[in-house]
Predict the structure.
Amino acid sequence: MLGDTIVAVSTPRGKGGVALLRVSGAEALEIASRVFRPRNGKSLRDATPRTAIYGEILAPEEDGEWLSVDDGIATYFAAPASFTGEDTVEICCHGGVLLTETVLTALLAAGARAAEAGEFTRRAFLNGKLGLSAAEALGSILEAGTREQLTLAHSGLCGRVEARCAEIYDVLCNVLASVYVKIDYPDEELADMSREEIVEALASCEDALMRLAKTYRTGHAIAEGIPTVICGRPNVGKSSLYNRIVGRDAAIVTEIEGTTRDVLSESAALGRVTLRLFDTAGLHETADPVERIGIDRARRALADAELILAVFDASRTPEAEDLELIETLSSEKSAVVAVLNKRDQGDGAVAFYRARFANVVTVSAASGEGMEMLTDVVERLFTDGALDSRRDAVLTNARQQAAVLSAREAVLRAQKVLLEGYPIDLCCTDAEDAMRALGEVDGRTVSEDIVGEIFSHFCVGK
Ligand code: GDP
C-alpha cells in the first residue's frame, strides 16, 4: 500500500564495514528521528536535506527503554527529490548482522513497516521517478554477470529505450490530437496535420519501431543470454572448451571417456554475447544408469538450445558417433557451430567438416588458440555489430519486444486505413492501440496523455 512508511536493510546480509537501512514514506523523518539522535544536539526532524549527519542510533531494550547501540550517519532526502519520490531517510550503521537487525527492529518499533521485495523500486515507478523499463534495468544491474550486461543495464536505467519509445509515442499523440481536435472543434482555426502529413508521420513511426524491434536480437544475446549446448562424442574436448569459455576449471577434464555425467550449467561472456552454457554428458548410448540420466538431460538441453557448439577432433578421421551427431544436427533449427578441437595435433579432418557445416572454427581448447574465431562467429550470429550498447536504445527483454512489435502492427493497420482512402478518423483506434502498446514499455497511461496533448498544444481550453 502506498502511503505508509516502509523500511528495509538495503545492503546484503552479512558482516561488513557498514550496513545501510532505508526508510521511505510520509513518516520517514519522524520515525527515523525516534531511532537516530544527531550528535549536534538537534533533532533529526530539523535535518537539512542531502546532508550527512553524524549521531547515535537507539534501540529498545526488553524493558522498553531505548538505549544507544551504535554510532552512524543519517541522510534525509526530502520528497520528491529521492529515489522513491517520497520522504526518505538512509541510516548507515556498522555492518554487524545482529546490529543491523537490531536497528531494523528499532525502526519497525518506531512505526515503519517492513518493505516487501522490490517495494522501493515499485514506489519509485508509481511516483513517476522511473519508467517500467528503467525499473527492469535496475534489476538487471544487480544481476549483471558480464561487463557487457552491466553496460546495457546502465543504458536501460538511463532510460534510452523509454526515450526512444517516447519520441514515437509523441508523434502518434500529435496525430491523434490533430484528428480529434478537428472532429471536436470543427469551427476553430487550429493547427492540424494534413492527411499526407499523417501518412508520413505513421510511416516514420513504423520505421522507428521496426528498427527498435530489431535491437532485441542483440539485447537478448547480451542481457538474457543464449542457451547454448556443447555436444560431441566423448573425449573430443567438450569439457576443455567449456572451461576455456567460462575461464576456469568448472568441468572435470580427464582422459577417461564419459567423465561428464551430468549437465553443468553456467553463464559466461564470449565477446559481447552471454552464453548460458550447458556442458553435457554427450548423446551416446550407454548401459550406465547414472550416465543415462545425464544423457537424457543433455537431449532436453539440446531441444531448448539456441546455439549448439558441436565439438569434433580436427586431427582425426570422423568416427561413427561423429557421423551420427552430424546427422542429428542436420535437421537442427538452432544455430550450429562446428568447433574442430585439438588443432595442435593436426588438421586432417577440417575439410571434411567444412563441407558439412556453414560455421566452422578450428581451436585448441587446451591452449586457447583459435578462441577469437569462435567469438567472432558467435557475435556475428547473435548481435548487430553496428549497435552500441553504451549509446543506443536496445530492447533487453521479451516483454519490451512484444510491446514494440504490437505497436508496430497497430501502426501498420492505421497506415492501411489511410492508404485505402478511408476517412482519417478511422485510423484513430489503431493509433491509440499503438500508443497503448508503447505505453507498456514505460507504464504510462494513454488517454490522459492525449487529453493533455490536446489542451497544451492546441490551447482549446480558452
Ligand atoms: P570431453 O570428454 O569431450 O569433455 O573431453 P575433455 O575436455 O575431457 O578432454 C579429453 C582429453 O582431450 C583430455 O585429455 C584433454 O586434455 C584433451 N584435450 C582437450 N582439448 C585439447 C586440445 O586442444 N589439444 C590437445 N592436444 N588435447 C586436448
Remarks:
- The pocket of guanosine-5'-diphosphate is lined by residues 232, 234-240, 253-255, 259-260, 341-342, 344-345, 364-366 (CB under 6 Å).
- DSSP finds 15 helices and 13 strands in the chain.
- The chain has a mean pLDDT of 87.
- The domain at 225-365 is CATH 3.40.50.300 (Rossmann fold).
